[in-house]
């Protein structure tokens, strides 16, 4: 897929196209209307669901788009194993294990804590996908354990690529620039910019949405709903990742243009895009009102949203991420923040194996 262009976006998107990417996702994902949900909520706003639970690999979800860039073919040269980390029911670990299996690589997952039952949910899928599981006591131990595992693999004659937790990096955020371009094309430019609701935790998906909107100069109203972190933390992290991602697709200096070793046009373009990214990030609404008692702990509002999306839209949510984001959307529809004539898009980031923990 070539990314959609808008006025002024060409240079940035040309450079994005040049960044290495291993195609893993089934894209574009559909944009599904949800008239039954809108009718039940008695709103005259339109509701649509961007079905990134349908990205395909390893039961899909937002991590697939991010891993495409983390697993740049150039970075996989000579690699025999992928190593990453997460919780005992991590969606990121599930998709990384699936990617390793797809690419013919070994995989080690460093998991903090034992699942209640390793035969259920993502914990079972980690094992079905052939991953080696290394268990540590808490989150602080995951980084050192990943290093130890990479060293163990090297000592045995292999080579590990350590994938950062959640693939929430500047490089991984580029996957959601493509998602923005898809939504922009699916919605068309004849309508007012939509509301876009997404779950957020480590900030990588939100960073890509911010960067994509900045590149396309699309004034979509982004709402990020925290699954665990304070709103200020998510905003700061996502903004930093988006700015860093905007600077990733750099060019080699052209000595004919600048004998001193720098292409002055490239620097100015990056600075302009970074400024647009910050402006876009400042306009994002980030809320931690729907997180409840903490990560992975269901909330009454999330459980209601799960029932509504299931019975009125045929869409399965999970209790960790998407149910809480959907609860925020329902609340904004009910209080009139999203009014008649508006279009609200729910970005479904996947995660439904958590229903079966």
Write structural notes for this entry.
- A six-stranded mixed β-sheet has the order 1-2-10-7-8-9, sandwiched between helices. It has a four-stranded parallel β-sheet with strand order 5-4-3-6, with helices on both faces.
- The longest helix has 20 residues, at 264-283.
- 42% of the residues lie in helices and 14% in strands.
- The chain has helices spanning 10-17, 35-40, 63-70, 91-103, 121-128, 142-155, 170-173, 175-187, 204-216, 231-246, 264-283, 300-313, 322-334, and strands at 31-33, 46-51, 81-86, 106-112, 132-136, 160-162, 195-200, 221-226, 285-287, 343-348.
- By secondary structure, the chain is of the alpha/beta class.
- The chain folds into two domains: 10-60 and 170-356, Rossmann fold (3-Layer(aba) Sandwich); 72-162, Rossmann fold (3-Layer(aba) Sandwich), CATH 3.40.50.1100.
Helices and strands in order:
Layout: H1 10-17, E1 31-33, H2 35-40, E2 46-51, H3 63-70, E3 81-86, H4 91-103, E4 106-112, H5 121-128, E5 132-136, H6 142-155, E6 160-162, H7 170-173, H8 175-187, E7 195-200, H9 204-216, E8 221-226, H10 231-246, H11 264-283, E9 285-287, H12 300-313, H13 322-334, E10 343-348
Parallel strand pairs: 2-10, 3-4, 3-6, 4-5, 7-8, 7-10, 8-9
Antiparallel strand pairs: 1-2
Helix pairs in contact: 4-5, 8-9, 9-10, 9-11, 10-11, 12-13
């Amino acid at each position: 897929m070539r990314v959609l262009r808008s006025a002024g976006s060409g240079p940035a998107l040309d450079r994005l196209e040049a960044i290495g990417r291993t195609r893993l996702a089934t894209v574009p994902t559909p944009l599904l209307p949800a008239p039954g949900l809108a009718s039940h909520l008695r709103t005259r706003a339109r509701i649509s669901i961007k079905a990134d639970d349908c990205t395909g690999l390893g039961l899909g979800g937002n991590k697939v788009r991010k891993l495409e860039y983390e697993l740049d073919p150039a970075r996989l040269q000579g690699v025999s194993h992928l190593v990453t980390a997460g919780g005992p029911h991590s969606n990121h670990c599930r998709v990384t294990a699936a990617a390793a299996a797809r690419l013919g690589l070994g995989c080690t997952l460093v998991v903090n804590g034992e699942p209640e039952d390793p035969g259920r949910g993502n914990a079972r899928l980690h094992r079905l996908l052939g991953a080696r599981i290394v268990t540590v006591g808490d989150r602080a131990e995951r980084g050192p354990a990943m290093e130890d595992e990479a060293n163990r693999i090297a000592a045995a004659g292999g080579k590990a690529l350590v994938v950062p937790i959640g693939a929430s990096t500047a490089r991984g955020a580029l996957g959601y620039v493509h998602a923005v371009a898809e939504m922009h094309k699916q919605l068309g430019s004849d309508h007012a910019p939509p509301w876009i609701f997404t779950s957020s935790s480590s900030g990588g998906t939100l960073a890509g949405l911010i960067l994509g909107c900045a590149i396309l100069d699309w004034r979509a109203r982004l709402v990020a709903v925290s699954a665990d972190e304070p709103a200020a933390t998510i905003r700061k992290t996502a903004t930093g990742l988006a700015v860093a991602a905007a600077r990733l697709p750099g060019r080699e200096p052209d000595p004919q243009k600048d004998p001193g070793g720098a292409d002055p046009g490239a620097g100015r373009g990056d600075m302009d895009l970074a400024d647009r990214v910050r402006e876009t990030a400042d306009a994002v609404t980030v809320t931690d009102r729907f997180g409840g008692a903490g990560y992975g702990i269901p909330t009454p509002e999330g459980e209601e949203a799960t029932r509504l999306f299931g019975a009125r839209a045929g869409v399965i949510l999970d209790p960790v991420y998407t149910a809480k984001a959907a609860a925020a959307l329902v609340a904004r529809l009910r209080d009139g923040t999203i009014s008649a004539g508006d279009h609200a898009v729910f970005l479904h980031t996947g995660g439904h194996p958590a229903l079966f923990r």
